[in-house]
Write a structure and sequence with these properties.
Chain B: Its main location: periplasm. The complex is a heterodimer. Chain A is 60% helix and 0% strand. By secondary structure, chain A is mainly α. Chain A has a domain of 124 residues. Chain A is elongated, with a radius of gyration of 25 Å. Chain A starts with a helix and ends in an 18-residue tail after the last helix. By secondary structure, chain B is mainly α. The radius of gyration of chain B is 24 Å and the shape is elongated. The termini of chain B are far apart. Chain B has 4 helices and no strands. The chains are: A mainly alpha, B mainly alpha. Chains A and B meet through helix 11 of A and loops of B.
Chain lengths: 205, 157
């Protein structure tokens, strides 16, 4: 064991690239390296964030026909697309967390979706419909696990005025939402897209 | 001969006049404009969503829906109505259970669940709007005919 570590350390110190990296610079000044490093860091971070935000728009999502022809088309008829006050929830508002760490985690998961696009796992309506239950269940699970965080980014229970709701909605929210017995997605499934076959899903029959 | 033709012409005058008068009285669902002119569609009427159960006009009338059903799925995959009105969910939802007739097939055999012929709720149960009726409703409640002196005035038709 100890011999193994010593050998690895020896290789590490002996590697010419690493030796160069650990030596003090010969030609470049300390000011250039620190300030230049800082500027390069700013530029890199700016570019990274811009690219990240560019992939976080409705326009980017519907640039794949899988999204445009299926889920986006279904969203169009719902209240999250057009409504009396003119506020629209776009794809990332519900499907990407706003918090940075969670957002990066979700973006990494989304690489699977790029794979699916390249290999055409849902490139026809029939394939999409046969996958729909699986896709919906993944999303329900995600939203249940984070206590419907994306819903609550806009619909917070603190700013919900029950007196403005009809009695049926008010009593349901009082009994299930405010007691944390249920979370938004438990009852509000299929509000933005059509539902898969709901047999076996709790609360449906 | 001439007199005969004249008599015929005079004879049809009342019918033509009656036709004209009745045509004006007939309800015009498309408004006063003639059919050759395209008119903008009237605005959608607001639904009654006050959650107050509406009295039935006769005992076997399908009860009307006093809440919004916008976006509710009733298709091959899902039936949103049943998430509250099915027997097993009524305690949670405090909604009225669907009628026991809905658990029977057409010859009266009791089934384990909602009868397929009753699946499409909105075929019989519909939400109401507060639109002004185009034609006056002269429906009279059976009770009002039987015991007119004991009937309170109805609020909403």
């Amino acid at each position: 064991m100890a011999a193994g570590i010593a050998r690895a350390w020896g290789w590490f110190r002996g590697n010419s690239l690493i030796r160069t990296a650990l030596k003090p610079p010969v030609y470049l000044s300390l000011a250039f390296l620190t300030l230049g490093g800082f500027v390069a860091g700013v530029a890199f971070w700016g570019a990274f964030n811009t690219a990240l935000e560019a992939t976080n728009t409705e326009q980017f999502c519907v640039s794949c026909h899988e999204m445009e022809a299926n889920v986006f088309e279904e969203l169009k008829g719902t209240i999250h697309f057009t409504n009396r006050s003119g506020v629209r929830a776009t794809c990332p508002d519900c499907h990407v967390p706003h918090n940075w760490t969670d957002k990066i985690a979700r973006k990494m998961q989304a690489s699977k979706e790029v794979w699916g696009h390249i290999f055409g796992s849902i490139d026809t309506r029939e394939k999409f419909l046969s996958m729909r239950k699986h896709l919906a269940e993944r999303e329900w699970e995600r939203m249940k696990a984070n206590d419907s965080l994306e819903c609550r980014n806009c619909h917070s229970s603190e700013s919900m005025d029950l007196t403005k709701q009809n009695p049926r909605a008010a009593s349901a929210h009082e009994r299930f939402l405010f007691t944390s017995e249920k979370t938004c997605i438990d009852c509000h499934k299929g509000i933005a897209h059509r539902l898969p076959n709901m047999s076996g899903v709790p609360g449906w029959q | 001969m001439r007199r005969g033709i004249f008599a015929c012409l005079v004879g049809i005058v009342p019918f033509l006049a009656a036709g004209a008068i009745f045509a004006q009285d007939a309800p015009r669902l498309r408004g006063p404009e003639p059919f050759t002119k395209e008119t903008p569609a009237p605005p959608m009427q607001r639904q009654v969503t006050n959650d107050v159960r509406v009295r039935r006009n006769y005992p076997d009338q399908p009860p009307v829906i006093p809440h919004s059903i916008e976006g509710y799925a009733v298709d091959l995959n899902a039936n949103k109505c049943m998430s509250c009105h099915a027997r097993k969910f009524t305690q949670e939802s405090q909604a009225p259970m669907i009628s026991i007739t809905h658990y029977q097939d057409r010859v009266g055999n009791t089934l384990g669940g909602l009868a397929p012929r009753r699946y499409v709720c909105v075929a019989c149960h519909v939400p109401q709007t507060d639109a002004k009726p185009l034609v006056e409703n002269i429906f009279t409640d059976m009770d009002a005919l039987a015991e007119p002196e004991r009937q309170p005035q109805r609020g909403r038709h």
